[in-house]
Amino acid sequence: MTATDARQSASTEEATPVLTFEDVVLGFDGVTALNGVSFTVNAGELFAVIGPNGAGKTSIFNVLSGVYRPQQGTVRFGAEDLIGRRPHAIARLGVARTFQNIELFSNLTVLDNLMLGRHLHHPYGVLAAFAWLGKARRNELANRLAVEEIVDFLELAPWRRLPVGLLPYGIQKRVELGRALASEPKLLLLDEPVAGMNLEETEGMARFILDIRDELGLPMVMVEHDMGLVMDLADRIMVIDFGKPIRTGTPREVATDPDVVRAYLGEEHRVTP
Ligand SMILES: Nc1ncnc2c1ncn2[C@@H]1O[C@H](COP(=O)(O)OP(=O)(O)OP(=O)(O)O)[C@@H](O)[C@H]1O
Ligand SMILES: [Mg+2]
């Protein structure tokens, strides 16, 4: 089944969502970051979350990845309940993320940063690895091969042996995407993947995000302020404001919703039906 087939069958009624986020409430003394947020993500779907600054977009990711524990609600990933699990345990279930502000080891090379994304696959502790050196070496080799595949997929070859801190911003964002892919995730969370990028870098990133959906069939949740990118790429969009969803639907449905236009998009993004 191709990724497109998966998306189409996912949109039929009997499809089981890969991710269910239901009635989530998250507050920090006096501040309500999420005030009853519900959405689902289907197999192979690119689901976008948009909304003004402080609307609660990153908080959704922090709940999903176990950084924050909500006061109320359910979060299910496949058959697993994610609430109460630690970030490491959630990563092991196959949820990977990129960050709004790049979080890489700037003095390590591209290859080494990508290798760090593989460490989830290292089934041995350090001592056990000594005891089973042969096996550990084979693992290391398999990890290196997997990392080289990501280098090819994201066209990172020219920079592979350079420290990440020396690279242009747009390439660093791509390395961060690569590190998330290196863990072989089943769900990818992208927090503002093109923030701060120029037009050329944005178009490059858009192409890689589409390749991830269409070639790898990986479901994604993408938070992004670049409305052109969201409208072009997303299968469905949820608009949130003050921690509450205003509207969830296809790009066209969202762009023509009067409440959304009034609250967020403004006239320039209005689509004539
Ligand atoms: N650790 C925290 N402690 C206190 N308040 C927090 C914390 N994290 C988030 N908030 C608050 O929760 C609200 C939502 O923040 P969040 O970072 O989710 O917004 P966002 O939609 O990602 O915004 P932006 O577009 O600026 O990234 C904001 O009012 C923020 O100040
Ligand atoms: Mg944010």
From TrEMBL:
Residues 19-267 form the ABC transporter domain. Pfam families: ABC_tran, BCA_ABC_TP_C. Keywords: ATP-binding, Nucleotide-binding, Transport. Gene3D superfamilies: P-loop containing nucleotide triphosphate hydrolases (3.40.50.300). One of its GO terms (cellular component) is plasma membrane. PROSITE patterns: ABC_TRANSPORTER_2. GO terms for molecular function: ATP binding; ATP hydrolysis activity. InterPro entries: AAA+_ATPase, ABC_AA/LPS_Transport, ABC_transporter-like_ATP-bd, BCA_ABC_TP_C, P-loop_NTPase. This is ABC transporter ATP-binding protein. It comes from Kribbella sindirgiensis. The lineage of its organism: Bacteria, Bacillati, Actinomycetota, Actinomycetes, Propionibacteriales.
